[in-house]
Write a structure and sequence with these properties.
The structure is a homodimer. Chain A is mostly helical. Chain A is built from 9 helices and no strands. Chain A binds a DNA duplex through helix 3.
DNA sequence: ACCTGAACACCGTTCAAGT
DNA sequence: ACCTGAACACCGTTCAAGT
């Protein structure tokens, strides 16, 4: 005798994301997720292999949202590359502030969350595209990695509260953005 | 009737660091730590408030070791600043590879591990010192933050396995190092 | 075919009782 | 003064039994 489905995978992932933001990683329990979607914990295992797999799905959903925001900020290909870089950096930083726990999950996995290579590629694509225009084909990947590393590092440290020596953090962000944009565009020394 | 101490805080923290590296964050359990130092789990609470406090101590010990390595790599004040920057970056990257789980703990805390501001200051000091020589007093802090953000971001992404678009990751590291050193030394645009 | 209560292993933490 | 077993609350996960 079939029983009607009382929830969906999408609903479960959404509940996971909400719980992650409101209660951190340790707030993301199977019981809390189950409660939110109106089911008992054992039922979750019909849709998801285990908690780790659910966390991976949450990470992937977060990455794809970040990816979409960066993409939207990238602008057209006729745009000034430095302006595009600035918009993408702001978009990523704003996203990290809106979803700090989700952002942390992305590049700071407990063990190593293997997100899909395709998702990672989609997220990098707009950055690589701007890097091509800025640094040229040959150095585009290096330039994109340098920019992404700086951006991810800056935002992570900001979220972790690691900037505590005084000074204007906002100005430091602008400084880094300016200098990187210049540096990436120059011919190699 | 006093009982002789069967372990010490230092021993407990060491056990915590070892377990973190061998089994990740979830391998760092109170029971495993207790077993290693030859005591039962409840006894740990004589030296440590709870697991979270122990993790904070592990993070702080890791930060201070990283700090020492960067300091050792900084070299004398008569040295070429770009060479010093390169040595410090290598030292940090080597450290992250030797203690990946510990490194992850530093800037990717579950909630927000509040490490001691003094430790943070000690860790930044050699970088700020080189930044002064490279960028001048006025922009030293901005420059140090830009460099640290890039370094931390690059190493974190490397550890997380986020560089998967092909290309030479080693060369990307050198590229970033070169371009940053140049960019930070230039007068502001 | 999905859902559930019951059960199990495991973990963090407290506490009264030992020495 | 430190250490311990026992106990409690909580979590992830499995599974037989319900519909």
């Amino acid at each position: 005798m079939p029983t009607p489905e009382r929830t969906t995978l999408a609903e479960i992932v959404r509940a996971g994301r909400d719980l992650l933001e409101s209660g951190g990683p340790e707030g993301l329990t199977m019981q809390a997720v189950a409660l939110r979607v109106g089911v008992r914990a054992p039922s979750l295992y019909k849709r998801v292999r285990n908690r780790e797999a659910l966390v991976a799905l949450v990470a992937e959903a977060t990455l794809s949202e970040l990816s979409a925001r960066i993409d939207a900020a990238a602008g057209g290909d006729d745009d000034e590359p430095r302006a595009a870089l600035r918009r993408m950096a702001r978009a990523a930083r704003d996203f990290a502030r809106a979803r700090p726990a989700g952002f942390r999950l992305l590049f700071a996995p407990g063990a190593d969350l293997p997100f899909d290579t395709a998702s990672l590629q989609a997220a990098s694509a707009p950055i690589v595209r701007v890097a091509v225009r800025l640094a040229g084909e040959e150095y585009a990947l290096h330039a994109a990695r340098t920019f992404t590393a700086w951006l991810n590092g800056f935002v992570s440290m900001e979220l972790a509260g690691a900037f505590r020596l005084g000074g204007d953090v906002e100005a430091a962000f602008e400084f880094g953005l300016d200098r990187l944009a210049s540096a990436l565009g120059e011919p190699s020394a």
